[in-house]
Write the structure tokens for this entry.
Amino acid sequence: MTKVYHQEIFGLREEKYDWLKSHSISNVEWNEIEPEGDFYIFKPQDKTYLQEYQSFKKITELFLVYSVGIVTARDKLTIGWTEDEIWRRIQNFAKLDPEIARQAYKLGKDTIEWQINFAKNDLIENEFNKNLITKISYRPFDTRYTYYTGKSKGFHCRPRKEIMLNFVEDNLGLISSRQSDSSGALPVFVSNKMTDAHLITSAVSGSYLFPLYLYPDINLNHLFSGEKIVSEKKPNIKREVFEELQANFQKEVSPEEIFYYIYAVLYSNTYREKYKEFLKIDFPRIPFTKDYERFITLGKLGERLANIHLLKSTELDFPIAKYPEAGSNRVEKVVYETGKVWINKQQYFSNVPEEVWQYHIGGYQVCDKWLKDRKGRTLSLDEIKTYCKIVSALSKTIEIQAEIDL
């Protein structure tokens, strides 16, 4: 039988070189490991809770359909700060010579899946329909605008139409990923809009969108036209999940109750710590309680979290962060110092706790990234208000996470 051994060292490069000079295969203290399917992890792994964890269903086994978010392939062209910016950009881009457009928007070389002429033709075929401009959840708490035709290898490389059109009407979507970034924070978020493929992680695995509801008859003919959908929405949660919970509780549960329960579980510190070895590898698995009261209690905490993350909770009406100094509002250099987030030499956001500043959602340190993505821009009044709300949202998230106990 084949045996697998492992060893590793940490330290500075010179220390590693010295170690290698004095060791060979024969005198290294190897640790025997036993990699197991499906992933065959070739490193030591704490398997104390592996059997228990594997008894839970993955989120991909709970939802009927899901997909990675929109792959634009050219964010600098396809993603804008405002509706007017995107509207002007698509009209200008379509008129430009391909090589001039390539330079103007820093588009790089064409690929098999995204080419300038493909994008231009897609815009022209849709006759520059202003109704196709839509909001997109681009990064955590960062809503931007794009022009959505739904055509693959068009303006967007992979628009994921079969999933994204379900967000023309009211909907919720769970965002998760197959694996964590180097930050180690579990990639989980919520959206009520179309989503970008790197919403919560820059990893190759991408950010997956799991809609709560499906709208079977949605098509591009009435996309954003204001026309109401005739057919009723259907839960995107598998029937077996409802049946199992009803058998456990002797009560019917709603799709929203299941969604919010899942959201609470994924933000549980106990859950994240207990199963951290396995959450690094694949989509998270969900332990469903058999206690109805516990299910409802966690669901209410999950609902609070979701509303806070959508920035629509009344709990954010009086943000803890302040923006006390007048000035240019231009983001020049983002620096954190003892509760203050400086955006230039004169202006800062105050009352930003260290734990909030350091908080990660997936691969992003939110308070830092949100501002750094706006470097060189002048913050609008709405953006200043939004940032203050983000600080409160993360502070509330930390508080609620402490309440969730699995």
Observations:
- The mean pLDDT is 89.
- The chain has four domains: 4-45, 67-234, 237-313, 335-403.
